[in-house]
Design goal:
35% of the residues lie in helices and 20% in strands. The protein has a 7-stranded mixed sheet with strand order 3-2-1-6-7-14-15, with helices on both faces. By secondary structure, it is an alpha/beta fold. The structure holds 6-O-phosphono-beta-D-fructofuranose. 6-O-phosphono-beta-D-fructofuranose binds next to strand 12.
Length: 362
């Protein structure tokens, strides 16, 4: 049966999104003769006119190694709570009926929603309003349940590990404490895995509120053993025991979640006061989200895209594709967004770090 499917990429972008889009388009067109419509800027695409375009083979040619998403993305648009001007005031309004009408008007039979926790929750609600949806998990933070890994995470890790290698040489030359702040709002996967791979001495993650005395002691002991420099990796969502996360900007009309940032500077100030050592802070920021996807993310993204099309063919709506071991499978979206996949403070990865002599601040 010939079908017309839509695809959107929602939430923060990440490397591998174009591999997913290409996978969807190729398997839909070449293998099945279907039509594909690209929706621009995530769920924002349903809020304004004309944010749709047909995606053919020509549109996806050469995009596999490209970072970002050719469709654009947004981590603001939410059709369930969209700021609409009324009597000169912006009022949060549910405009999902309009979104559903738009989808029907375009003749879209099913929608592929590529996104993290937030976007997949919106997708699930749209599904309840009658839009057949299949989800694809995406986030560099790797904090989505029900999949071993999300695409984009591997590339972000590579970037962070490469940065740590570079910081090592300059830290050593200047006998400094180098602090690298990485992404990871609720989950410390990037900090933990890049820290282990990049030879960090201290790793601070949101799942283990840290004790500053322990951190200072770890660096001091290292210095007394003859290493005059230290490398710290801090996840943006990490916070001191009894304290709270460092927020750069509060949530407002434009940003539905608060913007984190500044924990690296906080740790630096505290270390200066307890150790007589020079410190420097590097905030890796969006470098982790940009650039060409790794081989792993290209392959995983492509496989996820293909599997989403297969799920639509089998009319298995409300499912999210996922990776289990080396196999692609699927789970109900509902199950995947119930809670976040956080680092287990007593799990193997943290234990491995501690076995290597890395301090985790407890
Ligand atoms: O994709 C998730 C994430 O990487 C978080 O770790 C971070 O807080 C957020 O994106 C930042 O997103 P943006 O700057 O696009 O709002």
């Amino acid at each position: 049966m010939k079908r017309k499917i839509g695809i959107l990429t929602g939430g923060g972008d990440c490397p591998g999104l174009n591999a997913v889009i290409r996978g969807v388009v190729k398997s839909a067109i070449i293998r099945r003769g279907w039509d594909v419509v690209g929706i621009e800027d995530g769920f924002d695409g349903f809020l304004g006119p004309g944010k749709f375009r047909p995606l053919g083979l020509a549109e996806v040619r050469g995009i596999l190694p490209r970072g970002g998403t050719i469709l654009g993305s947004s981590n603001r648009g939410n059709p369930f709570s969209c700021p609409v001007e009324r009597d000169g005031r912006m009022v949060e309004t549910d405009i999902t009926d309009q979104a559903v009408e738009t989808i029907k008007g375009l003749g879209i039979d099913a929608l592929v929603a590529v996104g993290g926790d937030g976007s997949l929750k919106i997708a699930m609600e749209l599904m309840k309003k009658g839009v057949p949806i299949v989800g694809i998990p995406k986030t560099i933070d790797n904090d989505l349940m029900e999949t071993d890994v999300t695409f984009g995470y591997n590339t972000a890790l590579e970037t962070a590990t490469y940065a740590l290698d570079k910081l090592h040489s300059t830290a050593e030359s200047h006998h400094r404490v180098m602090i690298m702040e990485v992404m990871g709002r609720y989950a410390g996967w990037i900090a933990l895995e890049s820290g282990i791979s990049g030879g960090a001495d201290v790793i601070l993650i949101p799942e283990i509120p840290f004790d500053l005395v322990t951190v200072c002691r770890a660096i001091d002991e290292r210095r007394r053993r003859g290493s005059a420099f230290s490398i710290l990796v801090v996840a943006e969502g990490a916070y001191p025991r009894g304290g709270s996360r460092v927020v750069r900007n509060r949530a407002d009309e434009r940003h539905q979640v608060e913007r984190l940032g500044g924990i690296g500077d906080f740790v630096s100030r505290e270390l200066i006061s307890c150790l007589d050592m020079d410190t420097r802070v590097t905030v890796l920021g969006h470098l982790q989200r940009g650039g060409s996807p790794s081989t792993f993310d290209r392959c995983l993204g492509s496989r996820f895209g293909i599997s989403a099309v297969q799920l639509i063919e089998q009319e298995q709506y409300g499912q999210m594709v996922c990776l289990r071991g080396r196999d692609i499978r699927s789970v109900p979206i509902e199950k995947a967004v119930r809670r976040l996949k956080l680092v287990n403070p007593r799990g193997q990865m943290v234990t491995a770090a501690e076995e290597l002599g890395i301090a985790v601040g407890r």
